[in-house]
């Protein structure tokens, strides 16, 4: 896999200083860190049909082309090939009439946050822990000039590359990195972090890392699990939370605001809270794994299977 087009893009924009470290990191990734199945995923990517979409729309979702753009046989092959990338977590995608019905209706989250964020037109945008990149495309559809997502999960990179194959927009990119591998770029107008903070062992360090990616005055959009309580309330679950092993700290909304202010963010506010519903996270033919209904107490859906409060999510916005 080549990242040369990304290097060429940033060589002439405000991210050019990233070239001091990034090529060596990605070369090491390719030589020493490739997932055992990556060669098979790359083979599937190479087999995707080459199409000429009659339209691409990213404003109301991710819609690429129509079914009429391709032959019936190509449609069936497209479905078979994309299903080789299961599980599809974040979406949905509509590619030549094929509905990739992902586990999460990530458009629900997008609709919740859009009324509260700054206009993305002409902005440089970073999404930390972006999954397969669904929101990257929505950010581009909202007018962002240059969009970068980082996520170390290599299946998500393969899924992103599959969608990018049909859209063909080099202003949207996904890199197989974690935030701890990013230098202090101080270059993005908006940084998104959605569904990541509770997976970090040190949430305060994580907030400082997010801050170091923003230009002065830039906007952080952070979405995370929360619990009810005051500014001193933080849930530290046991080995698992909703069957997830890597959940470390779930603060109250007030505690989250206090953490952000302690890290030097300004104009901190919680703009939305939402209880995750079965309509937003559920089993589909595109995942073959458990989902929300399996993570909650069957006798009391207000609790997780372990007895903790069921997932409640909030969106926070702040400025550097």
UniProtKB/TrEMBL annotation:
Gene3D superfamilies: Vaccinia Virus protein VP39. It is an enzyme of class 2 (transferase). Signal peptide: none annotated. Its EC number is 2.5.1.-. The keyword tRNA processing applies. GO terms for biological process: methylation; tRNA wobble uridine modification. InterPro entries: CmoB (IPR010017), Mo5U34_MeTrfas-like (IPR027555), SAM-dependent_MTases_sf (IPR029063). The keyword Membrane does not apply. Keywords: Methyltransferase, Transferase, tRNA processing. Carboxy-S-adenosyl-L-methionine binds at residues 90, 104, 109, 129, 151-153, 179-180, 194, 198, 313. It comes from the Bacteria. CDD domains: AdoMet_MTases. Belongs to the class I-like SAM-binding methyltransferase superfamily. CmoB family. Homotetramer. Catalyzes carboxymethyl transfer from carboxy-S-adenosyl-L-methionine (Cx-SAM) to 5-hydroxyuridine (ho5U) to form 5-carboxymethoxyuridine (cmo5U) at position 34 in tRNAs. This is tRNA U34 carboxymethyltransferase. It comes from Thalassotalea agarivorans.
